[in-house]
């Protein structure tokens, strides 16, 4: 599925293809809550980093979160790159160089209509703020820390994986470019 996203002020626009576009996983950790989760959690989805296209990259700033585990005395600096607009502060996506083929856009930055998930997964509940009301749904899954299945595993289990090839992506992008060029000739 082609996902198109942007920041609030419009300085940054991006598109990326996703095999796993359902916004089902709610992360309640303090990093997600404080950087992108006004409701007490953030929702990331999976994107194929090889297909990422960005307009306005010069307006993006990167933040490396400090990770403070309860059992560690000192925080670690995350290798994950949380990208946001330096003008309006909209969080856009997370990229981790340890997984170079992936990027994880925040569902809140996606302008494309996303499919509604049939169930949700609530993670990092050990770190949820006391004021956050976590829904109690019998179909949902709940984890104090990390879940027992990945974004891909969840989509596969429910038969929701969106298949595409890089060839298909390139054909669509070439067609869009030709159409845009064609329109500019007549304008």
The name CATH uses for the topology is Metal Binding Protein, Guanine Nucleotide Exchange Factor, Chain A
Low-confidence stretches: none
Q: What overall form do the CA principal axes indicate?
A: globular
Helix count from the secondary structure assignment:
3
Number of domains: 1
Q: Order of strands across the widest beta sheet?
A: 5-12-11-10-7
Which second-level CATH architecture applies?
Beta Complex
Assembly state of the chains shown: single chain
Q: Termini, distance in Å?
A: 30 Å
Q: Radius of gyration over alpha carbons?
A: 18 Å
Protein architecture, described:
By secondary structure, the chain is α+β, with helices and mostly antiparallel strands. The chain has one domain (2-186): Beta Complex (Metal Binding Protein, Guanine Nucleotide Exchange Factor, Chain A). It has helices spanning 30-36, 151-157, 166-186; strands at 2-6, 13-17, 25-27, 42-43, 47-48, 53-55, 60-63, 66-67, 76-77, 81-85, 91-95, 102-105, 121-123, 141-142. Strands 5-12-11-10-7 form a 5-stranded antiparallel sheet, with no helix packed on it. The chain has a 4-stranded mixed sheet with strand order 4-3-13-14.
């Amino acid at each position: 599925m082609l996902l198109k996203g942007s920041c609030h002020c419009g300085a940054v626009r991006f598109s990326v293809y996703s095999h796993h576009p359902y916004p089902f996983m709610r992360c309640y950790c303090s990093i997600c809550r404080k950087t992108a989760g006004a409701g007490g959690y953030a929702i990331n989805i999976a994107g194929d980093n090889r297909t990422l296209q960005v307009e306005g990259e010069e307006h993006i700033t990167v933040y490396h979160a400090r990770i403070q585990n309860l059992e560690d005395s000192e925080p670690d600096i995350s290798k994950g790159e949380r990208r946001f607009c330096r003008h309006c502060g909209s969080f856009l996506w997370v990229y981790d160089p340890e997984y170079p083929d992936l990027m994880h856009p925040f569902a809140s930055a996606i302008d494309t209509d996303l499919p509604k998930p049939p169930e949700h997964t609530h993670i990092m509940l050990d770190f949820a703020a006391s004021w956050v009301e976590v829904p109690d749904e019998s179909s949902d899954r709940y984890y104090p820390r990390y879940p027992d299945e990945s974004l891909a595993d969840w989509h596969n289990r429910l038969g929701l994986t969106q298949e595409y090839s890089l060839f298909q992506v390139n054909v669509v992008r070439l067609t869009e470019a030709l159409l845009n060029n064609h329109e500019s000739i007549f304008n």
